[in-house]
Amino acid sequence: QVQLVESGGGLVQAGGSLRLSCAASGFTFSRYTMGWFRQAPGKEREFVAAISRSGESTNYGDSVKGRFTMSRDNAKNTIYLQMNSLKPEDTAVYYCSADYAGSVRYWGQGTQVTVSS
Q1: Cα distances (Å, whole numbers) of residue 69 to 8, 43, 117
Q2: Which end of the chain is less packed: N or C, by CB atoms within 10 Å?
Q3: Structure confidence at residue 27 (pLDDT)
Q4: Structure confidence by residue, pLDDT tens digits, 47-93
């Protein structure tokens, strides 16, 4: 059974930091590109970051470049999203994804991040 379980969300003041985690199971983690997306109320789901299978390559959405850092630990089947200098507009539900051959195959259930001004 495939599972992606996010954790680490919460309430933080603007300028603060949070670290999200996503633990994967039920599939061969190291064969999948992994990603983070977010969705704010009334808005479409937005790409945040992605990381290659080896972890050597990352890319980020324009709104988070320079503030967020994505990493992965293939030994622990886990990805991370370090979020610094958080802004109220970062408030959203954050989802991790497992991508194969250019398509998202699996989604996590999401974790809420709320940034107060």
Answers
A1: 15, 23, 22
A2: N
A3: 96
A4: 999 999 999 999 999 999 999 999 999 999 999 999 999 999 999 99
Q: Is the pLDDT of residue 111 over 90?
A: yes
Nearest to 46 by CA among 61, 65, 26, 33: 61
Read off the tokens for 66.
């320079």
Would you state the pLDDT for residue 22?
A: 98
Token reading at 51: 């990381």
Q: What is the DSSP string of 69-82?
A: EEEEETTTTEEEEE
Q: How many residues are given for the chain?
A: 117
**Does residue 104 have a pLDDT over 90?**
no
Q: Residue holding tokens 């988070």? A: 64
CB atoms within 10 A of CB 81: 26
| Distance of alpha carbon 75 from alpha carbon 84, whole angstroms | 25
CA distances (Å), 97 to each of 3, 41, 73, in order? 10, 19, 15
